[in-house]
Structure formats: structure tokens, C-alpha cells
Design goal:
Shape: globular
Largest sheet: 3 strands, parallel
Distance between the termini: 34 Å
Number of strands: 3
Structural class: mainly alpha
Strand content: under 5%
Length: about 425
């Protein structure tokens, strides 16, 4: 039963969001038709978002190995899914229990404290539960104490991170209806603060002036497609046809680059469609939860939720974060750290979000420099986290997003004192 709840319900964002929408609509005493419609549309919105992410990740999964082989780069590649899969072999039961009780702790803290956030990004909850299991276990804790402490910590982190990001979310969305539920928050806060220091929010990425003959570049999907085609051209030319053939199924580097660039942009377009559907359903439904169950509660949703508010900042943030990752990579060896290869997937999702945060506080300069700082953060934190993960640190991968690194370092350091 526990495994069913964890694997089939709590770790499935679409089902979790659908359940929350259904509870909210029931609390509002909506009609049966509205309850069914709102629940299914919320689930469909998340599935559409996931489908778009899958298309986009498929394109990035081709680009990453091409960069490594083309530029002869060796090192550790951060990958949340990979390190969690390895952690499950040792801490599977602890992770499941911490996730289940952690979600209950999240609701309790939101109900009885001013931190009114319900964290609905299920897979990140699962990843954080795995990190807490691994770090506390490596520090020597076992059994019930590990599960109780891990659950309380998880519930607290699930309200703390959305609360820290909320001042920036108000600037991005123009209201206080939704929150950010994604464990890259440390990078987003750094991007927002960097934007304040270096830029001007009035000079937004969304108001870039271009000649009339290039007006099509104002369409964020088209500009994303062209940008990614150029990047694929550069990488495939460097890698050569022989290497490209391993990933293209024999297709020429020229056509492969064009198709992959367009595929990437199509993935972004599908993500935006899914986000808009979720927003249209979850915000009204959450009023029911806010009124009857957790007063003033806000749904904390996955990071693409901010993409529609500044689509140009999305691609700018991705590129600037990746550049930060490359610069960080070359600094690591002289500093005596494990070399972290920039992972395309974390740099896209967290870099794009950091770009939107930086744009909200500092416009174009904020998006560029804020996302660049995020790129440095998600390069150095995973390297510093490796020793804290114990035997898992030898797995040639580590957690990728910023909060996993910072929280793992803090909790691991404190736990080792006892």
C-alpha cells in the first residue's frame, strides 16, 4: 500500500495536481461536471507539460554526448534520476517513508504556520527524500530517528523554498496566486538578486527591438528554434560526421542539426501549452483548498510554470547558464574539485527559470548575468556535495539542481557533528 501511494500517487505530479484540484473543487461545492472537468484538465495539463519536456530532453540528450565527444571533455555528469536510482538500492525503504510522511508534514506546516505553500512537484519531493535518506544515513543515522527527522526536514524544505522565492514570483506573475515548487530555488534567488545588482527591470528581454525584416525573431518559439539550430551546427561540425552518425542513425550532420533544433523548439511550445492549461484550472480549484482546508494556501508548481511570463528570457537564461557551467568546469581542476560537465537538461530547466527571475529584477542584463550565476552554482555545489554522499559519491554522478547541493552540504555537515 505504501509503495502504491509513493510510486503511483505522490511521485506522479499529474495525479497529485489532479487530486488537489478535485479536493479544491469539492470544497467549493462545484457541480459534478465542473469537478470532473477541472480534475481531468489539470491532469492533462501536466501530462502535456511532461510530454513537451520529454521531446525537449530527447533533443538535449543528443546534444550532451556530442559536446563531450566533439570537445573531448571528461568528468562527472550530474543527473538527479541516475543518483536517485543508485540511492534506492541502499535507502529505498527510508526514501519511501520520508516522502510519504514528508508530504503530510508539508500540509501540517502550511496549515498551522504562515508558510502557506503546498509543494506539488512530486518527482522533486522524491529526489529530496532520497538525498535526505542518503545524507542522514551516511552520517550514521538509521531506523525510526532517520525517518522522523528526514520527514520533518522534507516538510519544512517544501514550504521554505517556495516562501523564499515568492517575492520574486510576485514580480514575475504580477499576482500572488501561484508559487514555485522546484529545488533549484537557490539558483533562482541568486539570479533574482544578481538582476537587482546589475540591471534594470524596465529593459525586459521581451521588449528587444529588431529590424522590421527580422520581426519573426520576436516570436519566442522561432527564435528558440533558430538559436538551437545554430548551436547544433557548431557542435556537430566540431564533432564530425562519424560521431554524429552514432546519434543521428546515419543522418547527415546538416539535416540532423536542423531537425534537432526544431524538435527542441517544438518541445518548448508544448510545455507552454501545458502550463497555460494547468494555470487555467489549478488556480480556481486551489481557492477551495485555501478557503476550507489550508487557509491562504498557494500551489507550489514545477519550474516551467514561469516560462510563459518571459519566453525570450527562457532561451537567454539557458544559454547564459550553460556558459556559466562551461566557465565553472574549467575552474574546477585548478581548485582541486571533481570536474563537473555541464548537463544540458539541468542547465535548460534551471537556467531558463533563472533567466526569468533575473529578467524580472534586472531586465536583459539580469537575465544574462543571473542565469550565468546559476550556471556557476549548479556546477560547484554538485562537486562539493560528492564527499557528503558517502559511497554514493563514487557513482560518477551526483544531484544536479542547486537546492540538493546546498541542503545536502548543510544537513550532512550538521549530522556529522553528532
Amino acid at each position: 500500500m505504501l509503495n502504491f501511494i509513493v510510486d503511483e500517487v505522490l511521485s506522479q505530479p499529474s495525479i497529485l495536481v489532479g487530486l488537489m484540484a478535485m479536493i479544491g473543487l469539492i470544497a467549493l461545492k462545484e457541480s459534478f461536471s465542473k469537478i470532473v472537468s477541472g480534475t481531468l484538465k489539470s491532469i492533462l495539463g501536466f501530462i502535456i507539460l511532461g510530454a513537451g519536456a520529454g521531446v525537449l530532453i530527447g533533443s538535449l540528450d543528443n546534444l550532451g554526448p556530442l559536446i563531450q565527444e566533439g570537445f573531448n571533455v571528461q568528468g562527472v555528469i550530474p543527473n538527479n534520476e541516475a543518483i536517485v536510482a543508485i540511492a534506492q538500492k541502499t535507502f529505498g525503504k527510508e526514501t519511501a517513508l520520508i516522502m510519504g510522511f514528508g508530504f503530510i508534514a508539508n500540509l501540517a506546516i502550511a496549515r498551522f504556520t504562515p508558510l502557506k505553500y503546498v509543494f506539488l512537484t512530486g518527482h522533486h519531493t522524491f529526489f529530496m527524500a532520497a538525498l535526505l535518506s542518503a545524507v542522514l544515513g551516511t552520517a550514521g543515522m538509521t531506523g525510526v530517528p532517520l525517518i522522523i527527522l528526514g520527514s520533518i526536514l522534507l516538510g519544512f524544505i517544501m514550504v521554505l523554498m517556495p516562501a523564499l522565492a515568492q517575492p520574486f514570483m510576485r514580480k514575475i506573475t504580477g499576482n500572488d496566486d501561484i508559487a514555485l515548487g522546484h529545488f533549484g530555488t537557490v539558483g533562482y534567488l541568486a539570479a533574482g538578486l544578481t538582476g537587482k545588482l546589475v540591471g534594470n527591470p524596465e529593459k525586459s528581454t521581451e521588449e528587444v527591438k529588431v529590424p522590421s525584416s527580422l520581426k519573426f525573431l520576436k516570436d519566442s518559439i522561432l527564435s528558440t528554434a533558430i538559436t538551437m539550430i545554430v548551436i547544433f551546427f557548431i557542435v556537430t561540425l566540431k564533432a564530425g560526421q562519424e560521431v554524429v552518425s552514432k546519434y543521428s542513425g546515419g543522418q547527415s550532420w546538416f539535416m540532423f542539426s536542423i531537425i534537432q533544433g526544431l524538435t527542441f523548439a517544438a518541445g518548448v511550445s508544448v510545455i507552454l501549452m501545458g502550463v497555460r492549461m494547468i494555470l487555467g484550472e489549478i488556480i480556481p480549484a486551489f481557492k477551495g483548498i485555501a478557503e476550507k482546508i489550508v487557509p491562504e494556501a498557494k500551489p507550489a508548481l514545477d519550474c516551467p510554470i514561469v516560462f510563459p511570463y518571459a519566453p525570450m528570457a527562457v532561451i537567454i537564461g539557458f544559454l547564459a547558464s550553460f556558459l556559466g557551467g562551461v566557465v565553472g568546469m574549467f575552474l574546477m581542476k585548478p581548485l582541486g574539485l571533481a570536474v563537473i560537465i555541464p548537463g544540458m537538461v539541468p542547465h535548460f530547466f534551471t537556467g531558463a527559470t533563472a533567466g526569468v527571475f533575473g529578467n524580472a529584477t534586472g531586465g536583459k542584463r539580469g537575465a544574462i548575468f543571473g542565469a550565468f550565476v546559476n550556471g556557476l552554482i549548479i556546477t560547484f555545489l554538485p562537486a562539493l556535495l560528492l564527499p557528503v554522499l558517502g559511497d554514493l559519491g563514487f557513482a560518477n554522478t551526483t544531484f544536479g539542481d542547486a537546492d540538493f547541493g546546498l541542503i545536502g552540504l548543510i544537513i550532512g555537515s550538521i549530522a556529522k557533528l553528532f
